[in-house]
Amino acid sequence: MVKRNIVKIDEEKCNGCGKCVTPCAEGAIQLVNGKAKVVSEELCDGMGFCVGVCPTGALTIEQRETVEFNQEKAGSQEKNTDSTISCFICGQGETTGYLMPLRHDMESFWVCTRCLPKLIHG
Fold first, then answer.
1. Which of 2, 10, 13, 14 would you call most buried, defined as having the most Cβ atoms within 10 angstroms of its Cβ?
2. The pLDDT value given to residue 106
3. Which comes out higher in pLDDT, residue 19 or 81?
4. Alpha-carbon distance 102 to 88, whole Å?
5. Each residue's pLDDT tens digit, 67-118
6. Which are the contacts of 2, defined by CB distance < 8 A and separation ≥ 6?
7. pTM score, two decimals?
């Protein structure tokens, strides 16, 4: 066991929307019985890309004792795609560019790397 960052999901706050599943490139989060669950702690890299897209604030990052992150196993997971995810500025989807989650005024958005500088610098 090692002490590291890992995603924690509050089942009381989770509405089962599934928005956190796609940003989890390692496949650690899945919907189980209508709620998001960390199905394998060894797949969670603790980066928290899923946290920013949760509309209810059900996901947080906590540091605790758990198993080591298994990069090889995470890399072999089937990648999730979601055609509804696109840059809120230009509309580019995740199949044509890199998207990042963005939180502003308690809302979640996606922005592509092409539009991000415009957003930051005006």
1. 14
2. 67
3. 19
4. 10
5. 888 888 877 877 666 667 789 999 998 788 888 888 777 677 889 999 999 8
6. 65, 66, 67, 68
7. 0.69
Torsion sign across C-alpha atoms 7, 28, 50, 16: negative
Which tokens belong to 5? 């960052």
Question: What is the separation of C-alpha 78 from the centre of its chain, rounded to a whole number of angstroms?
Answer: 15
Q: CA Rg, the chain, in Å?
A: 15
Residue with tokens 């890199």: 98
Here the tokens at position 24 are 């989890």
Distance CA 6, CA 78 (A): 20
How many angstroms separate the CA atoms of 57 and 50, rounded? Answer: 10
